[in-house]
Design brief:
By secondary structure, the chain is an alpha/beta fold. It has helices at about 45-55, 70-80, 125-130, 150-165, 185-195, 205-210, 215-225, 260-275, 280-295, 305-315, and strands at about 10-15, 20-25, 35-40, 60-65, 85-90, 100, 110-115, 140, 170, 200-205, 230, 240, 245-250. The protein has a single domain (about 5-15, about 40-60, about 120-315), classed as UDP-N-acetylmuramoyl-L-alanine:D-glutamate ligase (3-Layer(aba) Sandwich), CATH 3.40.1190. Helix content is about 35%, strand content about 20%. The two termini are about 30 Å apart.
């Protein structure tokens, strides 16, 4: 069993993609009618790292980016947010960074993601073996990083090395069907990852997927041997399973502009709160509050709240809805 108290002692190491997001501008504009776009850092793992740093924590990213202007954009953005990119490698050849073209609107929000020849899938075993895991407080990864080799094999090698160094392993299921060759392959790989991780976070649809059938996700979450499992249910809140007990928490309702970024905000602020010694149920509420803030703002990485913004939101909000 990993020592979760280690979370507050050192930076978090986050594995996975950094990309460029292009938002149809102004907010509310559809992609097909847009004549201008605004750019921002994107990618689930990069967003989680930004959420951590803006919440007052420290984070480093482990991935590869394309050796071109878009890759350099991502590097510059990581620098601007204070994310350590010592272990971000530029990958040459025909690899290209993930690119998302997104709308800022709630109903029928379109997000067109380009992932052919994705540079982050070029992360290798040599990349993860070059890391000094003793420098870090935990290892965080999302399911996207497991969708293809060599990234998949490299991530499982990182799990072994991090575990040997005593790091808690934190897994955000983050199932994206377009990244996988088949649902069966994804389910098998996710089950392997979940079996070795200490903290597992996902929504009801993702847990249903891991369970192999709709409606079985909560039973799947209950069956996992993780120290903490968080089963998110959208507007119905979340169920947190830890030490044989279940805790239900509500949501913070805001005037949402778009649906994207909530999961990354949740995980980053959950970990940041646990790192500060905040009790688990309160840390889950902090994650829910951060998610509510992000969906009420444009962008994902730029929308992540600072610690002061999160604290102000929680103290002025009239309690989470049950």
């Amino acid at each position: 069993m990993a020592d979760l108290s280690r979370l507050g002692a050192r930076p978090a190491l986050v594995i996975g993609r950094a990309g460029m997001d292009l938002y149809a501008d102004p907010p509310g504009t559809t992609i097909e009618s847009a004549t201008r776009f605004t750019s921002a850092l994107g990618g689930s793992s990069a967003n989680i790292a930004v959420a951590l740093t803006k919440a007052g924590g420290q984070a480093a990213l482990l991935t590869s980016v394309s050796d071109d202007a878009v890759g350099r954009f991502c590097l510059a953005q990581l620098d601007a947010y204070g994310v350590d990119r010592t272990h971000v490698r530029a990958s040459g050849g025909q690899s290209r960074n993930s690119l998302a073209v997104v709308e800022t609107r709630l109903e029928n929000c379109q997000s067109v993601i380009y992932r052919n020849g994705a540079a982050d899938f070029d992360m290798t075993t040599a990349d993860v073996e070059a890391v000094d895991y003793s420098r870090f407080g935990c290892l965080i990864t999302t399911g996207t990083v497991l969708a293809s080799d060599p990234s998949r094999s490299a991530t499982f090698r990182a799990f072994d090395l991090a575990r040997a160094a005593g790091l808690p392993l934190i897994f955000d299921i983050d199932y994206r069907p377009y990244s996988w060759s088949s649902a069966a392959e994804a389910s098998d790989v996710y089950s392997r990852a979940a079996a070795v991780c200490d903290v597992i976070v996902g929504n009801d649809v993702e847990f249903d997927f891991m369970a192999g059938a709709p409606g079985r996700g909560l039973a799947k979450a209950r069956s996992l041997q993780a120290q903490i499992s968080v089963y998110k249910m959208g507007e119905l809140g979340a169920i947190t399973l830890a030490q044989g007990r279940e805790h239900r928490t509500g949501i913070f309702r805001t005037r949402a502009l778009k649906p994207t970024g909530a999961g990354d905000a949740f995980l980053g602020n959950l970990v940041a709160s646990l790192s500060r010694g905040i009790p688990l149920v309160q840390a889950v509420l902090h994650g829910s509050a951060a998610a509510a803030i992000v969906v009420s703002r444009t962008g994902c990485a730029p929308a992540m709240p600072t610690r002061a913004e999160l604290d102000h939101f929680i103290t002025t909000y009239d309690g989470p809805e049950p």
